[in-house]
Automatic annotation (TrEMBL):
It is a multi-pass membrane protein. This is Nodulin-like domain-containing protein. Residues 211-247 are annotated as: Disordered. Residues 222-247 have a biased composition (Basic and acidic residues). GO terms for molecular function: transmembrane transporter activity. The chain crosses the membrane at residues 12-36, 48-69, 76-95, 107-131, 143-162, 182-201, 275-296, 308-326, 346-363, 369-387, 408-427, 447-467. It comes from the Eukaryota. It holds the Pfam family MFS_1. InterPro entries: MFS, MFS_trans_sf. It is found in: Membrane.
């Protein structure tokens, strides 16, 4: 009977995660209403970047969200998300009703947006940890890729909804768009999805009333994973399995003698060198990717192509979704086909693409085709990295404390986006005409993108260093076993 309950709860949790990650994508739809927000409150580019960066800084909330999940479970975590997210959107709506007051209080709007984005982190962490524990480890990349794909498509859907229902033809006078109605819609949507998650999101064992059944289910799952690992070892050594057994045959194949999967807490991983490599890589790749996502409409406006802004707010999430999906599915295939390959090697794709994308931006010469191509490359890089960063955290540090570990690594993403957001604003306003809040021409962003290309090239070097550390650990383990 527990098999039926187990399967049912698994897919109920999957459906909760799909809705949660769809809602989470609203953070990356900021560009859809960024100009309306800027003109409604008459903010400078720096003030607008403060608001956008507060949402990115909320990524750091993923760490306390992971601790809450590990200690109190998914129901409490989703309840916290419900309170913070709904309250944040409601307060942002309130700000649109008192425009004069909030015109000089951009920091308050930043706090409201921080609450909203921070609340979303709670339900994102809860769903991804629960679903990874409910499904077999060999499917984690596919599941995380599916969730990340939905997360990437979501901004395109929200952008299309905003453009279709709330812009109402006010392109040049964005302050007259229906921004307040849009925020009310988001508040109601977040309330319903979080309530659904708080009621139905559970671990498989939590869905069973009998503790013996839960224990038996857990034991069976572990046994299934052991069988999968054994079968994987046989599949990768077809010659060895077909040899006849005799007194010279090795009882244990060297092919299956691999490093054991670690299960480390957040306090243990900060003592490892891999953690610092990973958080620096995350800080830079996610930082430049998040800054690019938040500022693409500003870049388009600088090129005097703002009438094509909708193309970027739709194309970028779609390309990002391709990167997220295949960024999860391909590592599953690679790790099963070549289990001894350094796990961090999958990060080479987003690292190299980020470098190429920024070089392309710097030489695009304000052409629409060049900007679209560069945006597609960057979206693929940022999307794939988002999924692969989670996969690497599990591969290097284990699944048991995945919530808090992924949250701790996510702090690097938040700091990176905030840092590069400020850097973009500095270049933008430095090249603006005196007394103007806007900058036009390629001088507004060319040197920024060139600098980012150089930094991303350094990241590729760090990824090779992380791969070498993994290889050295594997060789050391093999030597210890041989001796």
């Amino acid at each position: 009977m527990f098999e039926t309950m187990k399967g049912r709860q698994k897919y109920i949790s999957l459906s909760v995660g799909i809705l949660a990650w769809f809602m989470g994508g609203i953070v990356f739809a900021f560009n859809a209403y960024a100009i309306a927000l800027k003109q409604t409150f008459n903010y400078t580019q720096t003030e607008l970047d403060y608001v956008a960066s507060s949402g990115d800084l909320a990524i750091a909330v993923a760490f306390p969200a992971g601790l809450v999940l590990d200690n109190f479970g998914p129901r409490v975590t989703c309840t916290v998300s419900l309170i913070l997210t709904t309250l944040g959107f409601a307060l942002m709506w309130m700000a649109t009703q008192f425009k004069i007051f909030f015109t000089t209080k951009s920091w308050l709007l930043s706090v409201f947006y921080f609450l909203t984005s921070g609340g979303i982190r709670f339900i994102i962490v809860a769903t991804k940890v629960v679903i990874c524990k409910n499904f077999k480890r060999k499917h984690m990349g596919k599941i995380l890729g599916l969730y990340s794909t939905i997360y990437g498509i979501s901004p395109a859907i929200f952008s299309a909804i905003y453009e279709g229902l709330f812009v109402q033809g006010h392109i040049e006078d964005a302050e007259n768009q229906k921004l307040s109605e849009f925020l009310i819609m988001l508040a109601l949507l977040s309330f319903c999805i979080n309530l659904y998650a708080a009621i139905l999101l559970k671990m498989e064992s939590e869905g069973m009333d009998d503790p013996k059944e839960a224990e038996l289910a857990s034991t069976k799952q572990n046994g299934d994973e052991t069988k999968d690992a054994t079968a994987e070892g046989h599949d990768n050594d077809p010659v060895g399995t077909k040899k006849e057994v005799n007194d010279k045959t090795e009882l244990i194949s060297k092919k299956t003698d691999r490093l054991p999967q670690p299960e480390m807490t957040c306090w243990q991983i900060i003592k490892t060198i891999q953690f610092y490599y990973l958080i620096i890589i995350s800080l830079i790749v996610a930082g430049v990717g998040g800054s690019f996502t938040n500022n693409i409409t500003t870049v388009v406006k600088s090129a005097r192509l703002e009438e094509y802004a909708i193309i970027f707010t739709v194309v970028i999430p779609i390309c990002s979704s391709f990167g997220r999906f295949f960024g999860g599915m391909i590592p599953d295939f690679i790790f099963q086909k070549w289990p001894d390959i350094p796990k961090s090697s999958i990060l080479l794709f987003p690292g190299i693409c980020s470098c190429v994308g920024h070089v392309s931006f710097s030489i695009s010469d304000q052409s629409l085709g060049g900007l679209i191509f560069s945006s597609m490359i960057m979206a693929l890089a940022y999307g794939s990295f988002y999924t692969q960063n989670n996969i690497i955290a599990i591969q290097l540090f284990g699944l048991k404390y995945y919530g808090q570990n992924s949250g701790l690594i996510a702090i690097g993403r938040g700091i990176g986006i905030l840092t590069f957001q400020k850097l973009f604003a500095f270049f933008y306003e430095t090249n603006s005409q005196l007394g103007s809040k806007y900058c036009y021409g390629e001088r507004c962003y060319r040197w920024y993108f060139l600098l980012m290309a150089i930094i991303c090239l350094c990241v590729v070097f760090l990824i090779f260093c992380l791969m070498k550390i993994e290889r050295d650990q594997r060789l050391q383990h093999e030597e210890e076993k041989a001796s």
